[in-house]
Design a protein that fits this description.
With 275 residues, the chain is of the alpha/beta class. It has nine helices and eleven strands. The site of ligand JCH has 17 residues, from strand 5.
Amino acid sequence: MRIDVVTIFPEYLAPLDLSLIGRARAAGILDVAVHDLRTWTTDRHRTVDDAPLGGGAGMVMRPEPWGAALDAVLAAGRERLGDPDAVPHLLVPSPAGTPLTQAGAEALAREPWLAFACGRYEGIDERVLEEAATRMPVTPLSLGDYVLGGGEVAVLVVVEAVARLLPGVVGNPHSLVEESHAPASGGLLEPPVYTRPASWRGREAPPVLLSGHHARVARWRRDEQLRRTAARRPDLLARLRPQDLDAADLAVLAQEGWSVRDGALVPASPAPVRH
Ligand code: JCH
């Protein structure tokens, strides 16, 4: 997979040299190019921002350097891939984007070429995205409902979520299979995990995990998943299909205040208040 990143802070992307992503690059699975947007400025001060039209707070990224940068990324990537018609999928981190999900990361992992446009200030002049969309798929992407200072950290998150799904990047494919049931894929939260020593600072690991009883371990983990999900992510529980739950599941969920009504899991109705 080819990845281009355009930013005014190329040093912010230094973590792409490390760990999982660094190894994928060294193995030739990932080809990452980080570009400094100021390369495509033409004034003495290498200006990338200007005041917002219509007034208001902050500054907006000017379209001219972005247009030239995306033209250059397109040409260099086509050269690199040896395909004069190839286009990247342009991803634009934005608090106003579509939220990234695990399913979204899986779809991106199937693409041969991603390009990221990192904004700063209040964002990039909208015409840059409009014009790019006449030449390539463009997706504004959010990490969640909080405001970052710019797109760089979002790129690190997206690239890590995608890179670990590429064939040959994560050593043990079993850990990826298990994830298809995991929270990020819309299932239950994972159970707590423990390792040796069995007793640490007066705290015992759950004895069932040392029992060697596979069925009891599986049941205990399932119960913990249900309890955790009820406590932390009730939105996920509400999306479970009751027909996928067994009697033991329903008993645990009842303890946590959930029951099946009209074929859906619902929080127990509060007791009526007497006046
Ligand atoms: C970004 C900003 C708009 C501040 C500039 C570029 C993504 N999930 C997520 N949160 N924040 C981002 C993000 C991505 C790119 C940029 N900013 C700062 C942008 C604002 O509107 C009020 C305010 C933030």
